[in-house]
DNA sequence: CACCCTCCGTGGACGCGATCGACCGGAGCC
DNA sequence: GGCTCCGGTCGATCGCGTCCACGGAGGGTG
């Protein structure tokens, strides 16, 4: 991870569809060199995926909710997690410090679907209680932040 | 937005670097036709961007926090928002229903940086209080969910 | 019913990009 | 000094992106 790798990561975070030739121009290397570097970033786990970012409303997911989960003292955390993983509406899942073990970001089409999701979550073995907040609007999301070189 | 458009969106959400030729094979059209459709999805706002998804630890952002913000009754929401927007650590910003007007997802390198961020947030005019939860681990994030055709 | 217009696709052509292999130069080590 | 390894450039080949001309389906109109 030198300065050129950081530039490449930053360029690809801004636009994942840049060609290798274009990346090469931006960082001042040849296209094959860039190709090899990006390949190593991918296989080294630095770049996990390339994703198109989609307007959720356009694909029928107009309702965003953030849901805190308090675990049952008797439950098995891994089982709970596995159950969450089966629910496609849950786009993100963080294991948190604090009373609420998990924080979930879920997206559904309607409030009715959200209700059903919350019911399913509440019924999940190991879940003691849920607390749901509805996002009225998303101001921005997953904004890439500039990479600063490791303070050495 | 017909079935082919939905397939294209789904394919690109899974891998934004697929070539037009590959997309064309997957959906059974020619490459120019796919090119045009994808172009319309982009300019129509359905596809907002293409982003490389990066392992945050690899770029020195090992600490993820979720921060609820309670607004001052006297403050101007737009000004508060603008202040948040200036802070690159805030990757996502949702305007919420409930006591906490905003929920922020922030990523920083160290707990010390998180402390500084919280101090800056607390001092922001219009912010009455903050409540921070630290993500011990991210189980998954921004998982694309399968697109279901609008129930017509 | 014939006609035309529009939309959306195909096929062909051409230039550029992706990618492979051969080669090369500097750093580190005997 | 010379070997080896790493990471780069260069050149060639093949496939892809992209532009353009053409064509067929569908709908509105005289």
From TrEMBL, chains A, B:
Query: Alphabetically, which GO biological process terms does the record hold?
Result: response to amino acid
Tell me which UniProt keywords the record has, alphabetically.
Answer: DNA-binding, Transcription, Transcription regulation
The GO molecular function terms of this record are: sequence-specific DNA binding
Question: Matching Pfam families, A to Z?
Answer: AsnC_trans_reg (PF01037), HTH_AsnC-type (PF13404)
Q: Which domain of life is it from?
A: Bacteria
Q: What is this protein called?
A: Transcriptional regulator, AsnC family
Q: Which SMART domains match?
A: HTH_ASNC (SM00344)
Keyword Transcription regulation on entry = yes
In the UniProt record, does the keyword Metal-binding occur?
no
Tell me which SUPFAM superfamilies the record gives: Dimeric alpha+beta barrel (SSF54909), Winged helix' DNA-binding domain (SSF46785)
An example GO CC term for this entry is: cytosol
Ranges of residues in domain HTH asnC-type: 1-62
């Amino acid at each position: 991870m030198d300065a050129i790798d950081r530039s490449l990561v930053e360029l690809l975070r801004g636009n994942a569809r840049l060609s290798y030739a274009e990346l090469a121009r931006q960082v001042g290397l040849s296209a094959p060199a860039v190709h090899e570097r990006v390949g190593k970033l991918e296989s080294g786990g630095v770049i996990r995926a390339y994703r198109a970012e989609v307007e959720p409303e356009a694909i029928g997911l107009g309702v965003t909710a953030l849901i805190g989960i308090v675990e049952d003292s008797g439950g098995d955390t891994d089982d709970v997690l596995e159950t969450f993983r089966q629910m496609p509406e849950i786009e993100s899942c963080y294991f948190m410090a604090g009373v609420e073990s998990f924080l979930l970001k879920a997206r559904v089409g309607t409030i009715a679907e959200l209700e059903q999701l919350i019911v399913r979550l509440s019924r999940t073995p190991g879940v003691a209680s849920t607390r749901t907040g509805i996002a009225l609007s998303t101001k921005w999301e997953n904004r890439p932040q500039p990479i600063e070189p490791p303070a050495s």
